[in-house]
Amino acid sequence: MTDTSHRPQTQEKDGPIAAFLRATELDPRLIGMVGALFMIWVGFHLYGVFVLGDGSFLTPRNLWNLSVQTASIGIMATGMVLVIITRNIDLSVGSIVGVTGMYMGLLQVEWLPQWLGLGHPAIWVVTVIFGIAMGALIGAFQGGLIAYLSIPSFIVTLGGLLIWRGVAFLASDGRTISPVDATFQLIGGGPFGAVGATGSWIVAAIAGAGVLWMIVNGRANRKLHGFPLRPVWAEVFMAALGLGLIIGATMVVNAYPWPKGILKQYYDALGQEVPADAFISHGYAYPVLILLVVAIGMTVLMTRTRFGRYVFAIGGNPEAAALSGINTRAMTVKIFALMGALAGLSGVIASARLNSATNALGDLDELYVIASAVVGGTSLAGGVGTIYGAIIGALVLVSLQTGMVLIGFGDGSYRKIVIGAALVLAVYLDILYRKRIK
């Protein structure tokens, strides 16, 4: 019998998929989420084509509206990632949207015009700053209760959910406050709340330059610090992928024209007849651009700053983080203040989009925000989460809601069932993933 105990063992080679992922450094969970999103889009579109005879999901109009609807939830989901990473939860974000939206409505409709005059150009600026600051103060207050009084975040924010919703109702005596300032209204999107075709291509050019800079700068930093370099083909692939997505998204938003009624209103203001071939593109809506800016800023905060490292350290092991010198209490206050500020910003977008402040503003948003973060790969056990994952999670949930409306399931009960099932499935998949990596 041949002795094979000392025979050198050959290392198994990666398969083509594993080798591709290793070279490009793409996150398999990200690919899975994008794949799920793609299947949702194609599934709803094909259902519309073959069952309803109207494939309206994968159209520029629906995709544009989908992006605008995702903005408010996506902005808050980026902050919820930090909260959940540090093993906390914030159930009050929807009520913060409601209370900040209500006070912003009162500020610009009833209070500021008495001091500055109706239609003053500073009204919308003061209102936006006020809404974000109010949200940050509410978040910091709740964070202080959690950090310094050791009250569980679930209890504090559950109380906040009820308190701030009640405050919003009392502030307006149950009234709907409208209409908001004309300039403020543009922040919510719409035909006039977008940058148009030329502005969209300018945004695309800036974004494309940013993608190329990131790849070139990242490769230079790897060389500088002696880290392994990605193959050149992988760098080219990532650049082409990023540029392709930017160009594709820009073409889609520019393919959605203004409605005929808006065109007529626009040309009437110019004293002209509407041309027969008139075509004015929406382009990127302001809420989408705000979401992109927030996403970039939060990504830099999480991956390039000491604050971000502290967040992951606290989520990984709070006791060890405290012993290493991190002021975990102050960090908790800062994280909840940031969450509150993002909720205030979402209140700006939501109330501007509705052109009013209602008592239903932000209702149940907390559930969709938490679900977006969890569906996007943020672990409820703490220590794991990404900004881009939360935004994709928000897009998945909004796509499910929109798709069900388009195929005839407009009843909110069905949508709640689907969102609840998606949340449970996401948590289950996270448990399986964590077991596998262990």
Fraction of helical residues: over 70%
CATH class of the largest domain: Mainly Alpha
For the record, the count of structural domains works out to 2
Structural class: mainly alpha
- Cα distance spanning the termini: 38 Å
Report the β-strand fraction as a percent range: under 5%
Number of helices: 17
| Secondary-structure element series | HHHHHHHHHHHHHHHHH
Which residue ranges are poorly predicted, with pLDDT under 50 across at least 5 consecutive positions? 1-11
List keywords for this structure.
438 residues; mainly alpha; ABC transporter involved in vitamin B12 uptake, BtuC; 73% helix; disordered N terminus; 0% strand; 17 helices; 2 domains
Write structural notes for this entry.
This protein is mainly α and 438 residues long. It has 2 domains: 57-190 and 285-394, ABC transporter involved in vitamin B12 uptake, BtuC (Orthogonal Bundle); 195-282, no CATH class. It has helices at residues 16-24, 28-52, 60-85, 93-116, 123-148, 153-172, 182-186, 196-225, 232-254, 260-270, 286-304, 306-316, 318-323, 328-354, 365-375, 387-406, 412-437. α5 (123-148) packs antiparallel against α14. It starts with 15 loop residues before the first helix and ends with a helix. Mean pLDDT is 91; it is low at 1-11.
